[in-house]
Amino acid sequence: MSSLFPALTDGPPDRAALRFGDRSLTYGELAAAAGALAGRLGGTERVAVWAAPEPETAVAVVAALEAGVAAVPLNPKAGEKELRHILADSAPALVLAPPEAELPDALRDVERIDVDVRARGPLPGGGAGEDDPALVVYTSGTTGPPKGAVLPRRALAATLDALAQAWRWTGDDVLVHALPLFHVHGLVLGVLGPLRRGGSVRHLGRFSAEGVARELNGGATMLFGVPTMYHRLAEALPTDPELVRALASARLLVSGSAALPLHDHERIAAATGRRVIERYGMTETLMNTSVRADGEARPGTVGVPLPGVELRLVEEDGSAITVWDGQTVGEIQVRGPNLFTGYLNRPDATAAAFTADGWFRTGDMAVRDPDGSVRIVGRKATDLIKSGGYKIGAGEIENALLEHPGVREAAVTGEPDADLGERIVAWVVPADPQAPPAAEELADHVARRLAPHKRPRAVRYRDSLPRNDLGKIMKRALTA
């Protein structure tokens, strides 16, 4: 298979590739540093990468990919127990890290190579096949110890090329973001995506509205973020004309990893005239759907399947749902070149994740609108509520609650109920903590917008909702 990054050898060597704060690399410098490091990786099966928000992380991953070696990104904020599990499971021969990084005791017995971004060496020739492992990315481990999803080279190429088509992404684009680099959003889309296009990426290190405004007003064309980031931008817009100008000038604003609340969608659109588009993916599948750059950015929809991706909704018995009415809830299953090849050392989990005919069971529940757009309503394990004989997605109730002016944040869960089977519980962060909307008012608000059987039976008020690094609400922490 040819290089995943043709611009390393075919493009202008002085073209900007990466910038992290005041540190930057051109394509020529990136190719030379990655080439020098790749020459030291030959013969190894897997290497760990200490995925700090630094140029060394990008050099390390590119070097591994160019050498045909699988990279295992490590979260620098991971706890000792999680790190030890990942290291025992993936058994990396080396750990690649920035020279100044202080590594925890869990990595003491793994040989370390300090990444030198000023080193010089030739890129190795090809040899890796499209089905060879490129990355082993560990899932969040919400249902047990994290599992290592083995992503082949073809999955990276297929997803990034499909997004290029859907988003009209070219080498002229300059991406700005502040996403962590141990996950597919920040690493695959946010770093490898620009490099595959021959464009450039500016990583903020730490997210700030000031940083976003500075980079977008300084030539960046695209912004990637998670809902927490867009919420902070929406909060800052009323008093920050430079930020308004920056977002209004961006070619593409993309949110992912969790649903962007309607209130933030509307505040950003009202202030800037620009709509944030959403997309849908997973560690195991990379990207499945997206609103297209030339499509309608409707809050609540993650768009249509990307080129090459097959997507269907199924009933609990596995039968396909063929009605696109925006109401019928089913589990999303996908098939295509964007999929992982399996969980490392877990043939049992791999087999359970796929149907006999090769569809991956995402565990995400959704409806499809008549135009084919997908609207996620929640996770099967935590967000599908069976109440009074109905199947109800928590996501649609959350969206309805967020349309109420008195609600800043909302989450919906189910809990056992002797009469209904499960009852709907709303967890609400009020816009004004001193005057929260009444529970009955919120229940009626949902019933008017959706249906009476979808009204919350209990409302619990919180100062905040627990979220992970990617902005997803941790519902198990709520219900615990």
UniProtKB/TrEMBL annotation:
<dbReference type="InterPro" id="IPR025110">
    <property type="entry name" value="AMP-bd_C"/>
</dbReference>
<dbReference type="InterPro" id="IPR045851">
    <property type="entry name" value="AMP-bd_C_sf"/>
</dbReference>
<dbReference type="InterPro" id="IPR000873">
    <property type="entry name" value="AMP-dep_synth/lig_dom"/>
</dbReference>
<protein>
    <submittedName>
        <fullName>Acyl-CoA synthetase</fullName>
    </submittedName>
</protein>
<feature type="domain" description="AMP-binding enzyme C-terminal">
    <location>
        <begin position="396"/>
        <end position="472"/>
    </location>
</feature>
<dbReference type="Pfam" id="PF00501">
    <property type="entry name" value="AMP-binding"/>
</dbReference>
<dbReference type="InterPro" id="IPR020845">
    <property type="entry name" value="AMP-binding_CS"/>
</dbReference>
<dbReference type="Pfam" id="PF13193">
    <property type="entry name" value="AMP-binding_C"/>
</dbReference>
<feature type="domain" description="AMP-dependent synthetase/ligase">
    <location>
        <begin position="11"/>
        <end position="344"/>
    </location>
</feature>
<dbReference type="GO" id="GO:0031956">
    <property type="term" value="F:medium-chain fatty acid-CoA ligase activity"/>
</dbReference>
<dbReference type="GO" id="GO:0006631">
    <property type="term" value="P:fatty acid metabolic process"/>
</dbReference>
<dbReference type="InterPro" id="IPR042099">
    <property type="entry name" value="ANL_N_sf"/>
</dbReference>
<comment type="similarity">
    <text>Belongs to the ATP-dependent AMP-binding enzyme family.</text>
</comment>
